[in-house]
Predict the structure.
Amino acid sequence: MLAAVGRGSVGFVEEFGRLGHFLADTIRAVADLRTWGRQLFPMMRRVGVDSLPIALFISAFTGIVLALLASYIFTAAVPIYFVGALVGKTTMMELGPVLTGLALAGRVGANIAAELGTMRVTEQVDALETLAYDPHAYLVLPRVIAGTLMFPIVVAFAMAMGIFMGWLAATTLLPITTAEFLRGLRLFYVPFDIQFGLIKAASFGFVITLIGCHLGLETRGGAEGVGSATTRTVVYSAEMILVLDAFWALTLLRPA
Amino acid sequence: MIAFRELHKAFGPKQVLRGLSVAVQDGETLVIVGGSGSGKSVALKHVVGLLEPDAGEVEVDGQVVSRLRRTELTELRSHIGYVFQFAALFDSMTIFDNLAFGLRRRPMGEAEIRTRVAEALRLVDLPGAEQRMPAELSGGMRKRVGLARAIALRPKYLLYDEPTTGLDPVTAAVIDELMVRTREALGVTSIVITHDMRSAYTVGDRIAMLYEGRIRQEGTVAEIQQTTDPVVRQFIEGRPSPRGPEAAAPPSSDEEVAVKESQR
């Protein structure tokens, strides 16, 4: 039992060490702007624009459920316009970034791991190196930068969709007017709410793409190795999203 | 000149190279033969710094590859063309972009790149294939494109990793002929890794046999053909070992897969 725990701990530390080394190589590749610069905009479209449909789909239904949930929780003791406050606050600060992040861990992270893993096992990554390209500059940096820049934009759209659908559900299914919903929405709103959600989204984008690239390029074996890298990317990314979620709450939300 | 000096490499408990030493003189073609999983591809990857030796060194033009800084290694790689076993073409790019990819690292205009790509495709008998995708090509055509990608760079050295493996005898003969023609046209120094003896006799100036991690015998084609070494004879004649399959040089396919996987 103790030996198993020990092996697990050593494995975790080793994995973290390799990720640190990988990150250092990626940072070093920033100087090779000529290589990663050309890849950045196509990658921003793939990571960001192509992710919008799934993000909007998830946030639309989350907004509806939040409005109904709020009306169920807020009985006579709490004014009905608090529905707007709950929908707005939770969508901007928590559910928008976290649910979108989890969905994109599957869509973006798995896609990156499968693509780079396949390139690794078919020797395309070796071919890149022999043609004098640095895989960190050509493959990793554009994906990590695109993820870090585009996740907040996707999450901003998801926030807007969530609040819009929350309003639609509230005004059509509940005894609440648009004016009351907006009153609730403004009640506890501070600009930091959005900033908080977007900071989290950027950190999720960074971590998901970094893990996808790292595990993709570390792939061994054939199809089974690619499958394993893809699965591990989704699992590790989901875990890291939850850890980062708690980290940002502890760092930025704790009362002084 | 490329020289392997006392090269050792292990992957986990599996010791693949145990003091490999052999040299390739400028302008010649050295063929390294050996059973599957004997470490031929491992040795080749050390030449371009895709693997680092545990001990020993590989020297290219007087530079020890494992001691080079990243920029120096990139510079060295620009003089070496590598033809991968399964071509390793970038499957999201057209054939033109595959060939132009390495050229775009160099100070060359687009017109010059187009000319160079067309020349290389002509040399491998695939003129006009620029706009096709790798998935549309047969295995033999992909290998030819892989060769074209390497020679488009006009390298000083060409490294071939199992260039005829998996091909039918006619296509394999075509690839052999292309390798000979490439050498005559470009005057390159080549290392060819193969276990296809017919190919080795056709393209090689010298042949070296890798066995148990080191060179068992090296010599001209005629010397190898007349060898009295029982291990080399057994290999070149393709006879099973009298002591059974386990005693033959090639390890099991599982072992081969394990070594290939652990290289990455």
Notes: Chain B touches chain A at residues 45, 48-50, 70, 74, 77-78, 80-82, 84-86, 88-91, 101-102, 105, 149, 153, 257, 261-262, 264 (CB under 8 Å). The CA atoms of residues 1 and 25 of chain B lie 5 Å apart. The two ends of chain B are 27 Å apart (CA to CA).
